[in-house]
Amino acid sequence: MLIAGPAYRIETKRTVIRCWNPADAPLFKASIDENIAHLKPFMPWAYNEPEEIDHKVERLRQFRGRFDMGQDFIYAVFNPAETTVLGGTGLHIRGGSDMREIGYWIHKDYTNQGLATEVSAALVKVAFEIDKIRRVEIHCHPQNHQSAAVPRKLGFHHEATLHARVYLPEFGFSDSMIWSLFNEDYPTSPSSKAEIAAYDAMGRKIL
């Protein structure tokens, strides 16, 4: 029997990528609180931080609800023991049902280790091999060189830099780079060789 997605849990060599649960709120809050200054230059949502724990519970309830309804796929990035939040990522449905946009952030203590690339490669593989979509995009700030290195390493094409598309309270409007990878280019991309295991909502292996 063919088991369809979405992938609720994805295992890579160094991470567990899975949908958030409300019970993750303490770990989620601790990781965000430690990274507010690190995130603000590039993440507009960081200006809403810090939040109280009850707000975090409600936010994760919303994430899980939208995930279960197939409206947006926001993931936590954990260490293999799932005791530390290494960051966050997502396969976002923002440009239509035939595409996904990958977003990511990595805890400041775990940057420069290739984790964003590892996580993004896993999500690219899930998007094309499980979700069967046509296109994956990554958007990033032109000055966020670490972030821009991720799509470049994974064989994405820099399609455009859009002017003044993202507003950051401390920095004003910033440009946004758009990187794309299409399904016909996926088989020869580095992501196609990513070693992962993916599981559905019942824990059945789907990849």
The parts where pLDDT drops under 50 for at least 5 residues are none
Give helix % range.
25-40%
Q: What is the number of helical segments per DSSP (H or I, 4+ residues)?
A: 5
Structural class: alpha+beta
Q: Label the overall shape.
A: globular
Give the name of the CATH superfamily: Gcn5-related N-acetyltransferase (GNAT)
CATH class: Alpha Beta
In N-to-C order, the SSE pattern is EEHHHEEEHEHEEE
Averaged pLDDT, please? 96
Q: Per CATH, what is the topology?
A: Aminopeptidase
Strands of the biggest beta sheet: in what spatial order? 7-8-6-5-4-3-2-1-9
Rg over CA atoms? 16 Å
Task: Give a short account of the largest sheet.
Answer: 9 strands, mixed
Tell me the number of strands.
9
CATH architectural type: 3-Layer(aba) Sandwich
Keywords:
globular, 5 helices, Aminopeptidase, alpha+beta, nine-stranded mixed beta sheet, 207 residues
Overview of the structural elements:
With about 210 residues, the chain is α+β, with helices and mostly antiparallel strands. The protein has one domain: Aminopeptidase. Helices cover about 25% and strands about 30% of the residues. It is built from five helices and nine strands, in the order ββαααβββαβαβββ. It has helices spanning about 25-35, 35-40, 55-70, 115-130, 145-155; strands spanning about 10, 15-20, 75-80, 85-90, 100-105, 135-140, 155-170, 170-180, 195-200. Strands 7-8-6-5-4-3-2-1-9 form a nine-stranded mixed β-sheet, sandwiched between helices. β5 (about 100-105), α4 and β6 (about 135-140) form a beta-alpha-beta unit. The two termini are about 15 Å apart. The model has no long low-confidence stretch (mean pLDDT about 95).
